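We emphasize that the prediction below concerns an isolated chain of 162 residues; any contacts that depend on oligomerization or on bound cofactors are therefore not represented. The input was used exactly as deposited, without trimming of termini.
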Amino acid sequence: MADTSVFGNVYLWGSGKDGRLGNGKFSNEATPTVIKDIRFSKIVCGYHNSFGVSQEGLVYGWGRNENGQLGNGTNINTPIPINVTGFNKITIVDIACGWQHCLALSIEGYLFSWGCGDDGQLGHGDDYDLSTPAEVKFFEKTQVTKIACGYSQSAAITGNID
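Result of the prediction step, given as a token string:
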């Protein structure tokens, strides 16, 4: 489980292409710039986007969105944090992102994925893209405890030994 006892401001810097710094701009920043008005417990950076889990357990994404990897039901890039839709009052405690896909882990151990599915990295048994999170049904009878993403692959650790 993610450490949810620490919440604070998120600072990003570097390439601002596609809005990936979340500061409302598309320009590079050589010094840290803050994302205002949201307190985060977790932050991850992908290839052209970033994500954070808020103090309330909500997931926000910003940056490139060509394969729906921001999880808001669109394919529109955004330079500010937008809420990832589809969790329906489920509290998220951990996130991971790869090149153009993401995973989210709920406090109950449910695993969700969205974004580019070209290589099967979403875990739904196909190679379709998803622009909103969907539960990975493979794990519906076990509790996932840790998640990770690579370029075009995903990984999960469960609490069960099969």
